[in-house]
Amino acid sequence: MAIIDPVLHERRSQRPLSSPGNEKDIPVTADVEADSWAATLTPRLAQFVAVARHEHVTRAAQQLGMPQSTLSRSMARLEHDLGVALFARHGRTVSLTAAGRTFLATVDRALSEVDRAAESVRADADPAAGKVAFGFLHTMGSETVPELIRAFRTDHPRVRFQLVQNYGEAMIERLRAGDLDLCLTSPVPDEPDLVSRRLDEQKLRLVVPDDHPLATRKRIRLAEAAGELFVTLEPGYGLRRITDALCAEAGFTPKVAFEGEDPETLRGLVAAGLGVGLLPPPAVPRPGVVELTVTAPRAVREIGVAWLDGHPDTPPVAAFKKFLLSRRGQLLLHR
User: Which pairing describes strands 25-27 and 16-18: parallel, antiparallel, or unpaired?
Assistant: First the structure.
């Protein structure tokens, strides 16, 4: 943010300005605060561009659909506020001063950016072809999310998606920052500024190397793995919190040998004999491992959708949210 010297600002604002129809210079004292230029000038910028393009106030007023006298006063006020003459008057016509040409070049770019921004947000909110910013867990990316989007686009074929894969806490942060409209996450968050809905649950399995003594089993109580080395996701991941909680319920703290960011990488570490892991089912069966059903405690993770409370939905976001909520109990391809 620029720092304005109030004394210097006042001196600049008191420079003489030629008044239309008067050869005398009239001193002008700006009554605009330094931090309010945009709010003060913006309503008159499009009018200024029209006058500059036509070089004629009457024709510009006709284009803008406003009285000539109103437009003339608006341009005089704009010059008054700036403390700079933007136009040279020649009877009924005007031409830009050097300051006016400099001002026009920048204002043109600014208004073009406003036009582009307006078109962009309008396009994103379009009911038929708008955009949904959707976050989801890495483990949802190979099957669940593609199937969800395929099914949704049966009735909404032109809706666009900005897809973000991340772990739960990072997605919640992006929800709060306004970067995401919705996120599919686990555990289902319970935060006062969020709305969340449980959609489904996913069984977790104890994954062991195929040459492990436990590999001949189909089922296991988690307490039986208390002496094993575990491979887990890093702290902060939802699945890591669930793993720690289930092991605590089983009466032990897991001895962590490796931490990672992706469940399939962990499954690869298990296949290499580097530990065991409590993981969701893979999209494609992985050779080198055996996946055991955990009979106690009940090893599942809840999957839910979350959004920012009080945040207005665009039509495409509202439609996709309604679709997700309609998939309760049918979100996952259960194995």
Answer: antiparallel
